């Protein structure tokens, strides 16, 4: 692992993941990337859909376009 230099981060933001010498950024893109690497995208089309459904719900929560009531 090398020295972390913020100015070298894609988009100038964290989190950043370095894998095989390439930099990956944007939280949800990293989540999808890691899910693909570790084969966590579902065993069939329905499971893959459910993964995407959860991903989209998280994205909407982060964007503030949906809220969760108590």
Question: Which helices and strands, and how do they pair?
Answer:
Layout: E1 16-19, E2 22-25, H1 27-37, H2 45-63
Antiparallel strand pairs: 1-2
What does this structure look like?
The protein has helices at residues 27-37, 45-63, and strands at 16-19, 22-25. The longest helix is centred in the last third of the chain and has 19 residues, at 45-63. It has one domain (12-63). It contains two helices and two strands. A two-stranded antiparallel sheet has the order 1-2.
Short description:
By secondary structure, this protein is an alpha+beta fold. The protein has one domain. Helix content is 43%, strand content 11%.
Number of domains: 1
Main sheet overview: 2 strands, antiparallel
Give the strand content.
Answer: 5-15%
Regions with little confidence, pLDDT below 50 for 5+ residues: none
Cα-to-Cα separation, first versus last residue = 43 Å
Helical run tally: 2
Shape: flat
Considering DSSP H and I runs of 4 or more, what fraction of the residues is helical?
40-55%
What is the structural class? alpha+beta
Question: Biggest sheet: strands side by side, in what order?
Answer: 1-2
Observed structural traits:
70 residues; two-stranded antiparallel ribbon; 2 helices; 11% strand
